[in-house]
Design a protein that fits this description.
Blueprint: H1 2-16, H2 18-48, H3 54-84, H4 95-124, H5 132-157, H6 162-179, H7 181-196, E1 204-207, E2 212-219, E3 223-227, E4 233-237, E5 255-263, H8 271-284, E6 295-301, E7 306-314, H9 319-339, H10 356-368
Antiparallel strand pairs: 1-2, 2-3, 3-4, 5-7, 6-7
Length: 369
């Protein structure tokens, strides 16, 4: 009989502390619910990967971690509510506002993840060409809006008056505006870049007003990062672009070949034939756009050569391929000159030597006089 009593004593004490059992069951149910939610989301994600819709993939990917934390938050909130019935602590009064703040933060986390995943999916979608700079700008605006809204909701949930905060922000904004005018100028400069789109990420830009030339790597709200051709990063405040002219060679439609060629004066008889054949060669060249301006003409009597110039445009804008085309054109011009028995001219000088007898005879009248 005493042995049975020894076995029943722990059970009686456990029944007396029934809230511990309830908390344990809540935690166990939370753990099981978390596992079920994870498995369900994984299965839904596998099915949605087969669809072409970009939004559902972003939604499921954004949900996975925040939902897990939300399940744990609900479970722990229920467990704490049970413990409040038997425990009296001033710290437990903070549970509700902390829980509200955590719920808002988890929802904010979800929306930011959804925006980020949507941005990534749109950029990686090869079915439709999209402007990466515009997508980045829209994503940043949405993230900023979500964070500002979350901050105001958190302040409201903690008992602060949002209208008072906004009023204080309006008054303080004037002082902050004067103190941070350069920061605001850069912000609005970045906004103008996003709206006007004079260049985007990946473009090659240069400015004759400033020593700026390179490939755009990132357009932020304050700075634009440019990678120069010697692979150095160049950070330019966005406000600078409002006061300088920017050239965007990446958007050129063609590349120009502008060269002056010279043949010897001894080859003047075949000059017109060479010019005509060079022009015909350019018109038939597969990499030259004959619909654009195409000029091949005799230009001038240079000191050592008869110069004619070539002015034409290639179809490609690629820097490397352009030089291959230009090389092919120049080699063919040299072949045309050689085919007519002519030669390319180079700087020469002629020295006239007067015989000594002729020099003395020319000096005699002067001496007799």
């Amino acid at each position: 009989m005493d042995s049975w009593q020894e076995w029943l004593n722990p059970l009686q004490s456990l029944v007396g502390e029934w809230w511990i059992v309830q908390v344990f069951m809540v935690v166990l149910v939370t753990l099981m619910a978390n596992m079920l939610v994870k498995r369900a989301l994984d299965q839904v994600a596998q099915r949605l990967q087969k669809t072409k819709n970009l939004w559902d993939d972003a939604l499921i990917s954004a949900l996975q971690k925040p939902v897990t934390w939300m399940v744990w938050l609900v479970g722990f909130s229920a467990a704490i509510e049970l413990s409040r019935e038997v425990a009296d602590s001033p710290l437990l009064t903070l549970i509700e506002p902390v829980r509200d703040v955590l719920v808002i933060l988890i929802l904010t986390w979800f929306f930011i993840r959804f925006i980020k995943e949507s941005e990534k999916n749109f950029l990686e979608d090869n079915n439709k060409p999209r402007d990466a700079t515009t997508i980045h700008a829209i994503a940043k605006l949405f993230k900023l809006s979500v964070m500002i809204t979350a901050a105001l909701v958190i302040l409201q949930s903690l008992g602060y008056s949002v209208s008072g905060v906004l009023a204080f922000g309006g008054i303080g904004g004037v002082a902050v505006g004067f103190a941070a005018k350069d920061l605001l100028a850069n912000f609005f400069g970045g906004l103008m870049i996003y709206l006007d789109r004079p260049f985007k990420v990946g473009d090659w830009i240069r400015s004759s007003d400033r020593d700026i030339e390179g490939t755009v790597e990132e357009i932020g709200w304050r700075l634009t990062r440019i990678r120069t051709f010697d692979k150095r990063p160049l950070y330019v405040p966005n406000s600078v672009f409002a006061n300088i002219s920017v050239e965007n060679p990446s958007r050129m439609s063609h590349r120009r070949i502008k060269e002056t060629m010279g043949i010897r004066y001894d080859d003047i008889s075949v000059l017109t034939k060479i010019v005509a054949n060079v022009k015909k060669m350019l018109q038939n060249h597969p990499e030259i756009d004959a619909t654009q301006t195409l000029i091949v003409n005799f230009d001038q009597f240079a000191p050592s050569s008869l110069d004619f110039f070539i002015y034409t445009f290639t179809k490609t804008t690629d820097w490397i391929k352009y030089h291959d085309v230009k090389q092919d054109v120049l080699v063919k011009v040299a072949d045309i000159v050689a085919a007519h028995g002519a030669e390319m001219a180079y700087p020469t000088s002629t020295l006239h030597v007067i015989p000594s007898d002729a020099a003395r005879s020319s000096e005699q009248p002067a001496s007799s006089a």
